[in-house]
Amino acid sequence: VLPSFHRDDSEPPYYQVIFVMEFYLIFMFFLMAILSVSLIPMLVTHIAGQYEILCKQIQGLGRQEICIVSDKACRRVQDLQDRESMRNIYQAHTNLIYAQSKLQNLYSPNMFIKVLLNNLLFALCLYQLTLSTTTVSKFRVYKLTVEFFTVAFQFYYLCHCSEMLDDCNSQLGRAAWNSYWYRCSRHVQKDLMMLLRRVQVPNHLKFYEGAIVFSRVYFLGVVKVSYSFVNCLRMKSRG
Known about the structure:
By secondary structure, the chain is mainly alpha-helical. It has a domain at 72-237. It contains 5 helices and 2 strands; from the N terminus they run ααααββα. It has helices at residues 14-59, 71-130, 138-178, 186-198, 216-238, and strands at residues 206-207, 212-213. It has a two-stranded antiparallel sheet with strand order 1-2. It starts with 13 loop residues before the first helix and ends with a helix. The model is unreliable at 1-5 (pLDDT under 50). This is Odorant receptor 49. It is found in: Cell membrane. Keywords: Cell membrane, Membrane, Olfaction, Receptor, Sensory transduction, Transducer, Transmembrane, Transmembrane helix. The chain crosses the membrane at residues 23-44, 111-129.
């Protein structure tokens, strides 16, 4: 007769082992979810800081300094400095675009599932809040309210981070306008025009070739669709 390996998992020490393993898996799941959600704002904040540094460098173009030699030699030195600064600015902007594309590629494989689940959670939480609260305890109402605002805040902040990246391009354009570009040589002005052409396009976080573009307009669209979904469910329940 073969020995039986069946054990009752409700008896010690099997219960404690299973409980610890489940607690560990749940902890790791929430930890990875928090890291996944917070990674984009952290990287976007860092990229936005780099854009501010670029703005200060652009505003310094053409700024004349005190020169103890002839004006011609001073202009020559200033032109060389502006060319070197413009080369560094252009390279830094290229690196920022590359970093943003890497960030988008990192989240592209599962971003559709995240967006779908987030939109579904937003609609369901809104639907639960709009139900009659006479038969629901105050604690449950408080819990549903916290869940709804948590889902709404993290989704809105993700769209806000995308808007921050788009505003960075506008900041570069304003920095170029506020610089002393009219004092620069034609070569530097031409490079500055090339940079301005690059910052004229939107710079939102987008996935799947622009099928999903995070912005405040997109967040408002999700709110409208969720509200229509809630009204549809309420009409069906009444009918």
